[in-house]
Every structure is written in C-alpha cells, then in structure tokens.
Amino acid sequence: MWAVETIITIDNPIGTMKFLHSLIQCFERVGDRFIPQSKPSHPPPDIEQIYRYRLVAGMILATISMLGAFTFYYILINSFSEPGSIVTLTLCLGLSSYLVRQLFSLRKVATYTKVAHRMIASILAATTVGIFITGGPFGSITSVFLTLPCLIAFLLTNRRIALRFAALTYAIYCAYVVAGYLNYQFPQTIPADIKYSMEVALWVYYTSTLLILIMTYDGMTSRLSKQRQKEQDTLSYMATHDDLTALANRKHFDDQINQAIHRADRSNSRVALLLIDLNGFKPINDSFGHDAGDALLQHVSKQIRATVRIDDVAARIGGDEFAIIVQGDVDQEKIDRMLARLSENISHPCAYEDKQISVTGSIGVAIYPQHANDAHSLRRAADEAMYSAKRNKQDWQNYHPTTDRTHLQ
After folding, report:
1. Where is the GGDEF domain (predicted)?
2. Which end of the chain is more exposed for a tag (fewer CB within 10 A), N or C?
3. How would you label 156-176 residue by residue, b for 16+ Cβ within 10 Å and e otherwise?
4. What's the CATH fold of domain 250-408?
5. Over the chain, what is the mean pLDDT?
C-alpha cells in the first residue's frame, strides 16, 4: 500500500514539487537554528555562508529523518534476520548519533568545512558498509547511493574536494567489483519478502534527495545572484548619489553633463544647464543648527525632484548648490516655465520642529551649444548667470556674454 501511494505521488509531479518545496522551506527554517551566532570576536556569516549552512543542516536533517524512518519501519516492525537486524540497527543508530553531533557542532564558528567533510565521509562509509552487508555491488539495492557523496561534496564544498570523494568512491566500487569477480560471498541481510518495498523506498529517497539538493542549490545560487545584484545596485547608487538628498552627486553630475552633450551632438539637439544657489541658507544653518540645515536641504531636494522631468538630471554639487541638466526638447519658453515653478517650489517653507524655515534660490541658465562648446564652458556660463541673478536679486538669469565676471577673478 505504501509503495502504491508513493508511485501515485511520483506520478503527480506538480504535487511532488510542491511537497519538496515545502520540505526544503521546513529544513531551512530548522537549519537556521544551527547557523552560528555572531560574537564580538567573529563577524556574522554573510549571505552565502548562511545558505551553505542551511544546505548542510538540511542535508543532515534529511539523512537523520531517512535513517529514523528506515529503522522504525524495516527493523522494528518488519523483522530482519537476527544478525542482519543487529548490524543494520547498529549502523543506523551509530550514523544518526554521529550526524546529530555534527549538527550541533555546526553552531560553532568556523566549523562549516569540517562538518561538511565529516557528513559526506559518514554517508560514504555507511553506504560502503550497507553494500557489503546487503549482497555486494551486484546484488545490493544501496549501490546507487555511492553517487551521492561526490555530488554532495560538489554542492557543499568545491570541485577539488568533490574530485577526491569521487576518486575514493570509484576505488571502493572497484574493490567491491574485484571481490565479486573473485566469487566472494557477500552477506545478505535483507529478507526476500521486503526487498522489493525496500528498493522502492530507497529509490524514492534517492530521487527525492537529488531533487532537494538540486532545487536547494538552484534556489541558493538564484537568491545569491539576486542578493549580489541588489548589493551591487546599492553600491552603484551610493557611488553616484548624495547621501543626504538622494540626488545625483558631483561625480555623477559631471558624467551626465558630458553624456548629455555627446547625445546632443549626435541628435543635433540642445542641453540646458541650471545652476541653483540657495539664498539665506547659512543664517538658518547658524541659527537653528545643522539638523535644521539638513532638513531644509532635503526639503529643497524634494521640491526640485517634483519640478524636473523624468529625463532630466538633478544633482547636489556643493553644500547648498544644486544643478539640473535639461535634455531633449529644450525650448526657451518651456525652460522659463520650469524656472518659474522651480523658483516658487524652492521658496515653499519647510516645517522643522515647531518652526517654519525657508530660503529662496538664485538660478543661472546656460544652453549648449548656444552659450558654450563643451561641458566646462557650459558650467562656467551657467555659473556666471547664477551669480548675476544673485547679485541683481533676481530669481533666475539666462546667460549672455556681457555678464559681469568679477566674481571669478
């Protein structure tokens, strides 16, 4: 009956995959209890180490579960021959005890490699003994398990260790084959009446173990890839954006203005550069403290982001200096409308504690290639226009060649 139910389960691949997925999640949750905790003298395990600890713990738990079910059903319920029962029971209990010990050893720091090697070696040793007491390499139903140690070694450790276990497995099997050809009589401890059901059970366990290993390893590598990509994206974002305002930083702004000019040359279009300097920021920073100044800068940054288009680039290039690169459809009328909205939005008051603080902005505008022929001269032209607006107490100023340059001297 058990064999029939097993075959029905195998014939239902969707249900089987869901069951295996749930089983993997269960093993992961239990395996998390055996991940070593961080200590002052040891850094916490990284995400890759955590997944590998889970894989080792899950493999140990799966093996212990199989041994427990095997011992209960085939030895305690279905009586083996007396010598075979004693040998098999001793083998199962000994291996289970050893694996339980390794499972708790896994919680210690820097024992992952040792535990993985011991677990693989114990599975290989148990399989070797199992083949010996169940008919030898040609008659044993456990011979297929010789392929597991090297596969587990490859998934849990590295290629070099996996090749060592593969070579050892090959040597053991060759020794058994030679003994078989020399007509050595291997003991047979499995009664004939339960051999078929045992063979079905062991094959189910074997295929399930392979599926669990492959699915777990695939899930681990997939999640590691996503995690590393997320970390890479975070690092890339941190390298190109200002920590306080989340706008592009000075370096990213320099890269973007060069790229914008390059695209404008290819498409015969224009690029507008808006430089913004806040008026009245220093007195607020001195009177209310740096926290108030930071809150005000964040408020102004939000107003700038709310004003610019999605294709434009907004950056913080200095303490209270900002820049906007306007690309694509650069029309003077549209630029003037943006400047009006930008000036109004920047002057909106910011609520800080129980106070309302606000600043205004002086904006300088320069357009490529109308006012400059490269990124440096465009920045210089916008800078001159911005200082002209500040000096004349205007909200913004377009660049023209007669702009006074005394502030640069």
Report:
1. 269-401
2. C
3. bbeeebbeebbebbeebbeeb
4. Alpha-Beta Plaits (3.30.70)
5. 81
Would you list the domain boundaries of the chain?
2-237, 250-408
CA 371 – CA 157 distance, rounded (Å): 62
Residue 1 CB burial class (10 angstroms; 0-12, 13-18, ≥19): exposed
What does residue 292 show for φ and ψ, rounded to 5 degrees?
Answer: -65, -40
**CA proximity to 125, closest of 102, 156, 98:** 98
Phi, psi values for residue 368, rounded to 5°: -100, 135
Summarised one tens digit per residue, pLDDT across range 7-29 is 334 445 566 666 666 766 666 66
Angle of the 147-156 helix axis to the 112-133 helix axis, nearest 10: 170
Contact 327, 311 (CB under 8 A): yes
pLDDT digits (tens, 9 = 90+) for 86-125: 777 777 788 888 888 888 887 775 577 888 888 889 888 8
